[in-house]
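Folds abound. A case:
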Amino acid sequence: MGLTTGSAPFIEAARDRGQLFLEQPYDLYSEENHAAWRTLFGRIQQRWARYANPHFLEGLDKLQLPPDRIPRLDDVNRFLQPRTGFEAKPVSGYVPAFLFFDCLRRREFPTTITIRPAEELNYLPEPDIFHDVAGHVPMHTDKAFADSLVRFGDCALTAAELVSRLPNEQEKLRRLENIIRAMARFFWFSVEFGLMRSGSQLKACGSGLLSSFGELDHALISEQVQRIPLTLEHVIHQPFEIHHYQPLLMIVDSFDQLYEMVDTLERWMREGKLDNVAPGEPSIEESDLRSFLLPPSPVPSLDHGHRPAA
């Protein structure tokens, strides 16, 4: 059976034990699992060459991901960590919102270790190792992009600190729901489904696009897709849905611009400008709200408030 998404006894046992972070049990991957990676990786090569942004393509070259088998995360991290300090951190499943962003603050990327089944290669609503490693991780080799992820993590810590000062729990939850929704929307339209200018062309920079054979092509050429500049004023109020190709995509000019926008997002949070965003998707689970009320003890780390010079 291997480590197939939705039917992996190893993962189910870890969840039953309440174990979120784990080691990648590489020997448990079946030949069908490796065949799924081989098919996914092989068929998307030409679309990456045509539609992926240059930073992603450089990251692929640096990581040397194997085309014929699922990569060992230890090998991925050996190439990744010296470049930006990031590492892929294997998890057994869903990571609560605060913990996910706090991992980014510590330059850790929660990484799913299962892979989609053969009959669902074209679409899977939940992350798998192809989405996380082939879609996300090449971007983590870029310093400006990696620093922007760290700043997203800083924003989550700021949100937890701000609401901790409020005396009323219902008001804490109300404000958190708005703040998390604003952060999720920004993350979705930039890190997950963002477009980027590359000279006179538009390229994909979001991992949801870069890991999808069908949507990568659709995002860049379909007349059904509206493509607009990414602005904070718009994105924090813009709902999104996950179960179909995206009809609206947003464009950043550079990762330096993205970093500056996350800085502004944190400032707006402190000024109360995220306390009342437009209702709608995504829905926020109560467990995600409460993950901000009971954050783990801070882990000593470098001050990420200002990005060091390159």
Remarks:
- The beta strands are 87-91, 108-112, 194-198, 201-204, 226-229, 248-252.
- The chain has 13 helices and six strands.
